[in-house]
Specification:
By secondary structure, the protein is of the alpha/beta class. It contains 11 helices and 20 strands. Strand 19, helix 8 and strand 20 form a beta-alpha-beta unit.
Length: 401
């Protein structure tokens, strides 16, 4: 059986003033194409489907159209859970209609999916946080433990535990209870969740820059040893870099976001995970790179001409540009930068410090004219940096309105 794992679509997300919707359309097309070319039997989407609780109309339309195409109009089951950017109620709302197309939407951790049957698959069993389904061409079932995002307090309330209990214990007991009851060796056993999960005893994984953090202290940190031993593959969402924090035999995988969404992701390749699974055997998984979408570049230069040259040669990118120089950027230089490249998201001018000794900084001739005094004052306050012509012109304009 082939299973596609993806997450963190963040449909509708912007990069500062730039829309990413055109790129997201291309990436969703590519994702559908990969699913078809790989003859995928089941699709898992591990949260952060949208970027906000109230996504725009275009993002919602893209989401539903993509799910319908992935489901092959009901032939291939698609299961999506909510993440910390999603409104659980918004995700749950279309579920009765979505099921007719083979799409199962799960907004809350305590969700129970009512059994139903379509031509190519059927839901056999469901309880809180668990679903079992069979596909037409396979004689074994697929069991999925699912936990959409909820904060620490809500998770404990959902699962009926005392607030003093550690979240790892709460989830471990809940997952293990379902695994012991339903996940024997005669089916494929999976876990899908959108939580901040890390391996115990290793450095913490960085959350994406600009993301809503899940980890506040260690309260919301879940360790991978909470996963029941019956689980063959864990499909994670939230972190945007592809990584397996489990083992080759029992992968615990962040599939990555389909696009680079912050400059902390600069240079990252994005992936989709394709899993090959059968009962009572280690799964095999491969990561397929996503080719569409603009890259994000963090670049630093100390030469204006080289900056223009690089910008001219790298048009298909969003850029965070740091430009270091001995004088402040002039208005015409700034204008030329933006004319050369339409994807400059942040421009960070940086003035080189010039070393001056204390005597040079303190030795100001007070008998000078006012303009010379201003130049010396500016120089003393800015590490020896000379005021440029534009600044002097502005100073003269203030003196002589």
């Amino acid at each position: 059986m082939k299973i596609l794992h993806t997450a963190d679509w963040h449909l509708g997300k912007r990069l500062d003033r730039f829309s990413r919707l055109e790129e997201q359309v291309l990436v969703m097309d590519e994702l559908v194409q990969i699913a078809d070319e790989e003859n995928v039997d089941l699709v898992l989407i591990a949260g952060d489907l949208f970027d906000t609780f109230n996504p725009g109309v275009e993002a919602v339309q893209l989401f539903y159209k993509t799910l319908k195409r992935l489901s092959l109009n009901g032939k291939r089951p698609v299961i999506a859970i909510s993440g910390n950017h999603d409104s659980p109620s918004l995700i749950d709302a279309p579920d009765p209609l979505a099921r007719e197309c083979g799409i199962i939407l799960i907004g809350h951790p305590k969700a129970i999916i009512n059994p139903f049957e379509l031509e190519h698959f059927k839901i056999l069993k469901s309880t809180e946080g668990f679903i079992e389904l069979t596909l037409k061409n396979y004689d074994f079932p697929v069991r999925i433990l699912h936990t959409p995002y909820a904060n620490e307090i809500r998770l404990k309330q959902y699962f009926g535990e005392q607030k003093e209990a550690e979240l790892n214990q709460v989830l471990a007991e809940h997952w293990q209870k379902n695994a012991d009851e339903f996940c024997d060796e005669n089916g494929v056993n999976l876990l899908m969740t959108h939580l901040y999960m890390n391996k115990k005893g290793v450095p913490l994984l960085d959350e994406p820059e600009g993301e809503k953090p899940l980890k506040i202290g260690n309260a919301d940190l879940i360790f991978s040893d909470s996963i029941p031993p019956q689980i063959q593959y864990t499909a994670l969402g939230h972190l945007h870099r592809f990584q397996n924090i489990g083992t080759d035999e029992k992968p615990v995988v962040y599939s990555s976001s389909p696009l680079c969404y912050s400059f902390s992701e600069s240079g990252q390749t994005k992936y989709i995970s394709i899993i090959e699974a059968e009962p009572n055997q280690p799964v095999q998984f491969t990561k397929i790179p996503i080719k569409n979408g603009k890259c994000l570049e963090r670049k630093s230069f100390d030469c204006f001409e080289k900056t223009i040259e690089w910008l001219t040669e790298n048009q298909n990118a969003f850029v965070e540009l740091t430009l270091e120089s001995r004088t402040f950027l002039k208005a015409d230089e700034r204008k030329l930068l933006y004319q050369t490249h339409s994807g400059i998201v942040h421009l960070i001018p940086k003035v080189k410090n010039q070393e001056l000794n204390e005597n040079q900084l303190r030795d100001i001739n007070l008998s000078q004219d006012i303009q010379s005094l201003f130049k010396d004052y500016f120089k003393s306050k800015n590490g020896g940096q000379e005021a440029n012509k534009e600044l002097i012109d502005l100073f003269n304009e203030i003196l002589n309105p």
